[in-house]
Amino acid sequence: MSRPGTRRRAASGRRPVVLVLPALCALAFLVIPLIGLLVRTPWASLSDRLFSAEVGTALRLSLICATCATVICLVLGIPLAWLLARAQLPGRGLIRALVTVPLVLPPVVGGVALLLVFGRRGLLGQYLYDWFGVSLPFTTPGVVVAEAFVAMPFLVISVEGALRSTDTRYEEAAATLGATPWYTFRRVTLPAIAPGVIAGGVLCWARALGEFGATITFAGNFPGRTTTMPLAVYLALEADPDAAIVLSLVLLLVSVAVLVSLRERWIRGAV
Description:
This protein is 77% helix and 0% strand. It is mostly helical.
């Protein structure tokens, strides 16, 4: 008579063909385009193109803007995640839904929404321009705003998940010992959720680095000022396909590095 453990191993070892074949097709569908990118990469001229002025300018602008957008998301997103995870708010489900809207909203629509709010005649932009002379559209700060808008939900979701999975007894003990809420958050809560913050920050940075739709709609495409790597790929695809391939390869390597650094935290929900 077979043991239960043996039966479980046998059952888990079965691989129905009706599931395996679609799974392999899905894997091929996702991997083959990436292989095609590697195959068509102009390896002979790769170094020259990577160190060209155009690529260097776009890469430097992308890194600066993505990093600034991530800092904004950290400063604003962590308190928002704490509010969603710990505060008893009326309509918290609706607030959470609004926070995650940029995840499913077409980026171009997000850019249009930003224009309607922060444009010179926008709901807030008119006051920024009239009172302070600040105009965000079609500027480098506009790129940062567009990237922060589309990337912040990744950080908020990650940090909120980390907060919900953290044992609150340590925070309660700190409060019992007389610690203020701010001190408890800095010295107890934040260190406990640090892996979730790091994972969310990396995802946020990667999403900001690859943003295209909201950026080109809200900030335009001005070389040296708003032309980030994705926009440079779009421009080069018509005039110089090899340059577009090289730029795409750089973004692909960054994406792979992000996934490797996270070690499946996002997929497993370990944060």
